[in-house]
């Protein structure tokens, strides 16, 4: 369900449980993509959106309001919240569907932009230190990071964790989406990644006016439950 174009110690809490399979992928290699031009074009023309860019309400779309982030899950998506037990603040959300998932984290960003590039460089360094690799490729939201990290399963067998990392920079905020599982191995609107692309596009950020350090985590709130 497309919203429309722009108008001008942690614990996981399920919401609601609907199943979800393993996200780790056992693969031997990931094709090395061509290096695109970085951060060129209006990649947010169709979302994700700032709350001031869209009209919400007046429709029958079911959304989850987490304060700083408004989410539009599809039926069957298992939405989990990573909640800090002491403060009850939501630090990230993860949507799981079949053998794939996406983790969403929200950050404060400078008005001048550039935070996405800094994060990509940090994540590339992190992957190389871990003995993996990361490459920049052209994705649905501009330059995306494709990472392959070595890991072992419970039997000590060598596996590889593959992910695609999307970035979207808005007015003093940045969304990072990490696609995992089988969907991270595919590309294109008709692939297993397609529903997650649409989910990421439909995110709406309500950043607020609070001064924050660029790169600081923008926490979310537990959703209010309807009574009666």
Write structural notes for this entry.
This protein has 228 residues and is mainly beta. It has a single domain, classed as 3-Layer(aba) Sandwich (Protein Transport Mog1p, Chain A). The chain contains 2 helices and 12 strands; from the N terminus they run βββββββαββββαβ. A hairpin with a 2-residue loop joins strand 6 and strand 7. About 17% of the residues have low confidence.
Please outline the helices and strands.
Blueprint: E1 10-15, E2 49-50, E3 64-65, E4 69-71, E5 78-84, E6 90-97, E7 100-108, H1 115-129, E8 133-139, E9 142-152, E10 158-170, E11 173-181, H2 194-201, E12 204-205
Parallel strand pairs: 2-12
Antiparallel strand pairs: 1-5, 3-4, 4-12, 5-6, 6-7, 7-11, 8-9, 9-10, 10-11
Look at the helices and sheets and give the structural class. Answer: mainly beta
Number of H- or I-type helical stretches = 2
Q: Please, how many domains?
A: 1
**CATH hierarchy: architecture:** 3-Layer(aba) Sandwich
Point out poorly predicted stretches.
4-41
Per CATH, what is the topology?
Protein Transport Mog1p, Chain A
Please state roughly what percent of the residues sit in beta strands, choosing from under 5%, 5-15%, 15-25%, 25-35%, 35-45% or over 45%. Answer: 25-35%
